[in-house]
Amino acid sequence: MIKAILIFNNHGKPRLSKFYEHYSEDTEQQIIRETFHLVSKRDENVCNFLEGGLLIGGSDNKLIYRHYATLYFVFCVDSSESELGILDLIQVFVETLDKCFENVCELDLIFHVDKVHNILAEMVMGGMVLETNMNEIITQIDAQNKMEKSETFIFQSPRQDR
Amino acid sequence: MPAVSKGDGMRGLAVFISDIRNCKSKEAEIKRINKELANIRSKFKGDKALDGYSKKKYVCKLLFIFLLGHDIDFGHMEAVNLLSSNKYTEKQIGYLFISVLVNSNSDLIRLINNAIKNDLSSRNPTFMNLALHCIANVGSREMAEAFAAEVPRILVAGDTMDSVKQSAALCLLRLYRTSPDLVPMGEWTARVVHLLNDQHLGVVTAATSLIITLAQKNPDDFKTSVSLAVARLSRIVTSASTDLQDYTYYFVAAPWLSVKLLRLLQCYPPPEDAAIRGRLTECLETILNKAQEPPKSKKVQHSNAKNAVLFEAISLIIHHDSEPTLLVRACNQLGQFLQHRETNLRYLALESMCTLASSEFSHEAVKTHIETVINALKTERDVSVRQRAVDLLYAMCDRSNAKQIVAEMLSYLETADYSIREEIVLKVAILAEKYAVDYTWYVDTILNLIRIAGDYVSEEVWYRVIQIVINRDDVQGYAAKTVFEALQAPACHENLVKVGGYILGEFGNLIAGDPRSSPLIQFDLLHSKFHLCSVPTRALLLSAYIKFINLFPEVKGTIQEVLRSDSQLRNADVELQQRAVEYLRLSCIASTDILATVLEEMPPFPERESSILAKLKRKKGSGTVSDIEENRKERNTNVNGGVNHSSANTNAKVTSSSSTDLLGLGSNTAINSTPPPGPSTAASLLVDVFSETSPTGPLGAPSAPVSDDNFSRFVCKNNGVLYENQLLQIGLKSEFRQNLGRMYVFYGNKTSTQFLNFSASVVCQDALRAQLNVHAKPADPTIDGGAQLQQILNIECVSDFVEAPVLNIQFRYGGTLQNIAVKLPVTLNKFFQPTEMTSQDFFQRWKQLSAPQQEVQKIFKAKHSMDTEVTKAKIIGFGVALLDGVDPNPSNFVGAGVIHTKTTQVGCLLRLEPNTQAQMYRLTLRTSRDSVSQRLCDLLSDQF
Fold it and tell me: Name one GO cellular component term (chain A) (predicted).
């Protein structure tokens, strides 16, 4: 089971956090910091797996991560997941983001938090892998966007938008 | 076309985020956020109804603020309102807010549930998916209560869309994880299994995840999934990579699904049906073959996906542990990976080999890679990988390579990362003990360990070396000589001083013949370390000194001088002061004979599981370590178990004889021949040394915590289920007459697999051993799947007792040894014979038993409803006669009976006065024995 999915940048600023187990808000923030601390001190081209920090359950859990340009994508999983499988899943996630945002960059994640959550929700649900087929995921996202578009006419004009 | 075009987001949100990003300081950021929170709050509270767009915008802002680590304590109601909107965008953002921000314990869940219910029944697949996602993400018990029946229906309904089925499968999985009791197994289970045949691979993947979890808990219900999974896997493995279209990932056919199917198969033993088994073997061979083919792509994704499947296939081969050729092929494949340039693969290969090392078919094959693994330990740049190398060395260690491996681990320890030192220390200590052919090597190794990594040597390790030295007289002289030499170093670790002090105190005489280590030199050496040590070590050294007085009368004067000094006799530490005073006194007044008796050499320690091993298991969880241990234990049964077993009795005798009252030491344990290292740790050491279970207890296996869940249910009845877990059910039927009883214990195997090496024994601990005799007839060593085994226990009550005997059960299920300990409900009241008597008799006897210690009374609150009939049944079940019309108050209960023990009979009267208004009871017991009154009162008062 996937316990948490975290994205943060090279400075440890969280860009997405999704926990599939319940922690208090404080603990969640501590887990993000602890994870950043563990992952960021590792060299490039060492392996992509390491034992989880104490807060998220220690050696029962593994952190599986990838580092893309300015962002770390970290999945915290228990022993029931295949390490390489999760590594590929991160790749699918990133490729999907890339398709949806056209050359995704950190700013996209910042300004479209809701979209990123929606894309993630198409892939992972309640800590389990829901869908791995990128075309299927994108079809779903497209359908959502269409629905959104069809509803936009109801929106007020965003004039005094603050 | 990009799915999200840039710049079509919400402008207000973008502006806010930019503001935050432009903040120069944390304070400015907080200020900006507070301003925004106030703004949103006023918007939500304002009279003007917000439109959907604004609500969405504000919720997005709140999400962003939350991500930055700020508490959000409002907006929940708005989110709930968004759920009931029939516009997709509003509903979606509502669900998003809830899945990110709402905790499972929130009061809001009930409100949310209502909206979810509507969406689930909407037949709009998008809405249904949103609702299912929300259930899965929150996954609270309340949600399980509301939807556990509905979700399976959606999952197996014929007209459900594929995407909804996928979500429903995982949603059900989540609910089952949080509240398994609320998810009813039923006719849907069979249909879930058939989802493995579904056209849509996404549905199959989700269903496989669900079935894996369900099958782990209910293997029988999902047995049929094995053949379906094999068939599906075979189709994927043999398909051309284009057949599965979108589910082909970088030229690998459906890797995730393959991994899941292979995991599912690991829930079961190898298939019995030869055809299925053959097909599975073919699949596994194909996967192994593919690993040798040239890669279809240079991309790392291709090799990752391919190897994900390969590693899972290897796990399955190891799990089945039945096909030697496959096992050896797997091992060779992993061997190739050990030298692969991809760090990830080296890591995983080390990890998988660890489990492979425990299979008897491949243990030798694994051992051939020892040089590579040692090399990895020395050269890997990544600590995660080095740690796996340590694990693997530990797993592959046996008698033939122990010296090499221990030496390598020791040399690695000098430079090892701090985070893994303690674990390495434990591992070295265990290996050194387990594979020691000559114990001089063992002693050298442990002393080296203390020298290199003294800080990481836990108490268990140095206790253990002392236990072993004490138990083996062939190594005592060598140990004394070695510690003496090691102590010569100008700076030595305190742990070494402890070991040195203890060993010289016991066996210093063995090297005293050599003028270089004469008694006085030994003493001076130890005492030179004294002032640098902590209190517990000093306490230990003081005990060593008094032992010296016994061993070497010639240094008596010197030592008395030391003990007499103010820094000892007036030490601020109570423990040290007391020891100094008592030892000094002892050395002055006791004759040589008494001294020799009191300070006699330690008797051998009872042999049992190494506490170091227990510690390592605690550290690592019950995972691989114990498995490897168990497997190994079988292979070299008791190679080193040859130390003479002395029962705890000898120890007890020594203890009591050494603290004879003539010395006026009372209960002080300091004089006893084990020097406890200090007040705080004394208890744990004593427990460690003396906590030997009786000789029938399970030796050499991790002891299980004693379960007493159902214990109190049996106080007033004799039959029922005593214990139940996923594997085993224990039922009881018992009958008692006078001071004798017979108990039929039924062990039901709930699984489909045979239990092996089954054994069940009853242990009476401490005082109980003399009070209660329990004779257990030996039980069959195997229980077939689904079968029941009966064991008869004969019980005799010798005198009244308080504690309950413990039933220890051990068996092997699959590869692992199971240990269960349950308190047996043999309670004092079982030996009651009811006595009828008249009101007059009753009160006459009641008055006779009026001494204060004969009466025990307890006033307590009712735990159950105060039903007269139930109470009567309980009192009769307790064993006494219920006397009607004795008490003037008709609502009171009065009973009488006689407890029969072999040595005596104890008459017993009881009175229970309920107060329904206050929901309280008053229970009074009068018997001729105070211990009996107290015990009966405790037992009975717990029942109401």
Answer: Golgi apparatus
